[in-house]
UniProtKB/TrEMBL annotation:
InterPro entries per the UniProt record, alphabetical: PXL2A/B/C, Thioredoxin-like_sf
Keywords: Cytoplasm, Fatty acid biosynthesis, Fatty acid metabolism, Lipid biosynthesis, Lipid metabolism, NADP, Oxidoreductase, Prostaglandin biosynthesis, Prostaglandin metabolism
Catalytic activities: prostamide F2alpha + [thioredoxin]-disulfide = prostamide H2 + [thioredoxin]-dithiol; prostaglandin H2 + [thioredoxin]-dithiol = prostaglandin F2alpha + [thioredoxin]-disulfide
Tree of life domain: Eukaryota
Keyword Isomerase carried by entry: no
UniProt protein name: Prostamide/prostaglandin F synthase
Length: 233
């Protein structure tokens, strides 16, 4: 369901760093905009998506398309900025209900645990670790995010909601939304998978990578390890 762009436009966000408060409608008042709503600044999946989005940042900038990243809170934002994960403007919402207005759901512990075993999640964890993106435990672990693409003046091109923590749109699909598919270069913008990257560290089984990423209690560690082995992840 496409959100009410007028209602969303009235929501306020604060700049990172600085803390200047602006209404979201200001993003699409004078230009097209691609807005990405991250789950958590310390989430490895979010850092990975931010790095991948930065690969198309020059194309967006050249075509006068504003690139914006928004978080649900300020916690962990300094580390995100210092890590230079995102080549765009950063903000966080003043009111968490903005995420609910956009239809971004919240996980429960069972759905969160299950989603970490998806093939997409396993690949993202492996790729993030190979890139040294790291992560931390700060912030809201169960919130999902997504994206909103808006034309100058307020026409919504696409609204995207995550179904899992590693869910994302490809760079190619994003450029297509703005009729920029001719600018797409697979060798540098392809959201490459782990097997296409060079990595000189010792290979770990996917289920061990997942357990390293997720700070589970000892009982949950045992459960997850048995679950992975049974499903031959």
């Amino acid at each position: 369901m496409t959100p009410d762009v007028n209602a969303i436009g009235s929501q306020k966000v604060k700049s990172i760093p600085g803390g200047e408060s602006v209404e979201m409608r200001s993003f699409w008042q004078d230009q097209n905009v691609a807005i990405f709503f991250f789950r958590r600044w310390g989430c490895m999946f979010c850092r990975l998506w931010a790095k991948e989005l930065s690969e198309i940042a020059p194309v967006l900038k050249k075509n006068n398309i504003k690139l914006v990243g928004i978080g649900v809170e300020d916690a962990g934002s300094k580390e995100f900025v210092d890590g230079k994960f995102f080549d765009g403007d950063l903000y966080y919402v003043e009111d968490r209900s903005t995420y609910q207005m956009l239809g971004f759901k919240r996980f429960n512990i069972v759905s969160l645990m299950t989603s970490l075993f998806w093939k997409q999640s396993r690949e993202a964890i492996a790729k993030g670790k190979s890139m040294g993106l790291g992560g931390d435990l700060k912030g809201d672990w169960v919130q999902t995010g997504g994206a909103l693409f808006v034309e100058k003046g307020g026409k919504v091109l696409r609204h995207f909601s995550q179904t899992g923590p590693s869910d994302h749109l490809s760079n190619k699909d994003i450029l297509k939304l703005f009729d920029l598919e001719n600018e797409y270069k697979a060798e540098t913008m392809a959201n490459k998978k782990r097997e296409e990257l060079e990595c000189n560290r010792r290979s770990l089984k996917p289920w061990r990578l997942i357990l390293r990423e997720c700070p589970l209690t000892p009982i949950h560690n045992i459960w997850a390890e048995r679950r992975c082995k049974q499903s031959q992840v």
